[in-house]
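Q: What residues go here?
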C-alpha cells in the first residue's frame, strides 16, 4: 500500500513540476490549484526546496534561470490587473536615469488596494481611457507584464509632474528624442487623453 501511495505521490509531484515548466516556472497558488496541483503537493514542493516563494502566494521552480527583473515579474503576477507606469515604465523603456525605489503601478479607480510584502509599490488611480490606452504587454522571464508605452508614459508623467518632478519628465523627453523611432502623433494623442495637451505641447516643440 505504501509503495502505491509513494508512486502516486511521485506521479503528482512530477506532473506538478511539468505544469510549472509549461507556465514559465512561476505560478500563483490559485493558478496552481486551478491547473490541478494538489495543495499538499504544492507545499511538499516548497518544503523540499523544489519551489521557492518569491512573494506571498507566488511560487517559482528553484532550478529556473535567475529572473532578469524579479520585481516587475512579482508585481505582474500578484497584481495582474495593474499596469506598470510612470518612473518604473520610464526605467523599463530606458528613458530615465532615475532608479525607482518602488514599483509604480496604475490601477483602475475603485480597484482594491493590493497588499505586497515585497517589492514596495506605489499605486496610482487612473480612469477610463487614461487607464486602458497605451498598454503594451511584454514577456519578461516568461511572464506577461503590462507596461504603458513610452509615449503614454510621457503623457502620464506630465499629468503627475508634481509627483515625479518636471526635471525627470524633461530628461525623459530628451532620452526619448534619441531613440530611432519617435511618434509625435501618439504623444499628442495620449496628451489629449491625459488632458495635458496644452502643458505638454510647448515642451515637445522645444525639445523634439
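A:
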Amino acid at each position: 500500500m505504501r509503495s502505491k501511495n509513494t508512486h502516486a505521490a511521485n506521479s503528482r509531484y512530477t506532473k506538478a513540476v511539468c505544469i510549472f515548466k509549461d507556465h514559465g516556472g512561476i505560478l500563483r497558488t490559485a493558478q496552481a490549484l486551478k491547473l490541478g496541483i494538489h495543495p499538499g503537493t504544492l507545499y511538499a514542493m516548497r518544503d523540499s526546496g523544489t519551489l521557492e516563494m518569491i512573494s506571498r502566494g507566488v511560487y517559482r521552480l528553484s532550478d529556473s534561470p535567475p529572473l532578469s527583473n524579479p520585481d516587475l515579474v512579482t508585481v505582474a503576477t500578484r497584481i495582474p490587473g495593474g499596469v506598470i507606469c510612470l518612473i518604473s515604465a520610464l526605467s523599463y523603456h530606458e528613458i530615465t536615469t532615475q532608479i525607482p525605489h518602488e514599483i509604480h503601478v496604475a490601477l483602475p479607480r475603485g480597484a482594491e488596494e493590493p497588499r505586497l510584502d515585497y517589492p514596495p509599490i506605489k499605486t496610482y488611480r487612473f480612469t477610463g481611457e487614461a487607464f486602458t490606452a497605451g498598454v503594451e504587454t511584454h514577456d519578461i522571464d516568461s511572464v506577461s507584464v503590462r507596461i504603458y508605452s513610452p509615449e503614454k508614459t510621457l503623457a502620464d508623467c506630465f499629468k503627475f509632474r508634481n509627483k515625479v518632478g518636471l526635471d525627470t519628465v524633461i530628461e525623459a523627453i530628451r532620452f526619448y528624442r534619441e531613440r530611432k523611432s519617435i511618434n509625435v502623433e501618439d504623444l499628442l494623442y495620449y496628451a489629449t487623453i491625459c488632458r495635458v495637451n496644452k502643458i505638454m505641447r510647448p515642451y515637445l516643440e522645444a525639445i523634439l
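A: Context that may help when evaluating the design: The longest helix spans residues 2-22. The longest strand covers residues 103-108.
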